[in-house]
Amino acid sequence: MKHINLRSGLFLFVLLFPLLGFAHDVTGADQELLRNGGLWAYIQVGATHMLTGYDHLLFLTGVIFYLNSFIDILKFITVFTIGHCITLIGATYAGITADEHLVDAVIALSVLYKGFENLGGFEKLKVKSPNLLLMVGLFGLIHGFGLSTRLQSFDMGQEQLLAKILCFNLGVEVGQVLALIPIVFVITLSRKHKQFPAFYKAVNWYLVLAGVCLFVYQMYGYFHVH
How far is CA 177 from CA 10, 31, 36, 78, 86, in A? Predict the structure, then answer.
């Protein structure tokens, strides 16, 4: 029964992440909500954007899989959060933007990187892996810039601009916490099962595959548009 449950959990885990992606893009409904809903709407859209941000959640899943203690999880997630807050708030307020396909392509590579590292890819290549905390912080900056490009695709106007950015950022943090709770729960529970090594390997290979596919998809989108 436990083996069946673990397999079922893996199936749902693999199935749900790509499906979340369909709600990740900016929509007209979001724009309408922001236009009429005030600052609260920015919190709501920020939270929804993170909850449906499959690329961000895949990367965070890879980070959590590599860690064993709650203190380590808290430390690394804090560094990631600080990173994406810096670029989300700073780049949006300064009006710095880039092609969203290219930014999302780099984010896809971060997913690929984490799966590769978790599978011992650097050791197999006989190369010392970069400092993980430093890399998580760096990828946090990149992920935040991706969130900034999404936010700047909305018509925010100039009134209460900083407050709108901060509210969106607050929503992102709320969404991140809500998303991490079940992810941490599933991974922590799976560690107690004897099939965890197989689960670990399968999910991280999925991260590698997802990273490659998302990268190709974003690059196709970039060249198709240009």
Answer: 21, 24, 26, 11, 18
Cα–Cα dist 106/86, whole Å: 18
pLDDT tens-digit series, residues 110-133: 999 999 999 999 999 999 989 999
Which pTM value belongs to this model? 0.85
Please name which of 58, 46, 47, 60 lies closest in space to residue 16, comparing C-alpha atoms. Answer: 58
Q: Which value, to the nearest 10 degrees, does the dihedral of the CA atoms of residues 128, 64, 107, 152 take?
A: -140
pLDDT in tens, 32-84: 888 888 899 999 999 998 988 889 999 999 999 888 888 998 899 999 999 99
- Residue 209, judged by CB atoms within 10 A of its CB (0-12, 13-18, 19+), counts as middle
With b for 16 or more beta-carbon neighbours within 10 A and e for fewer, the 168-204 pattern comes to bbbbbbbbbeebbeeebebbeebeeeeeeeebbeebb
Torsion sign (Cα): 156, 160, 165, 168? negative
Residue 193 CA to residue 13 CA, distance in Å, equals 16
Q: What is the DSSP string of 5-49?
A: HHHHHHHHHHHHHHHHGGG-S--HHHHHHHHHHHHHHHHHHHHHH
pLDDT band at residue 149, thresholds of 50, 70 and 90?
very high
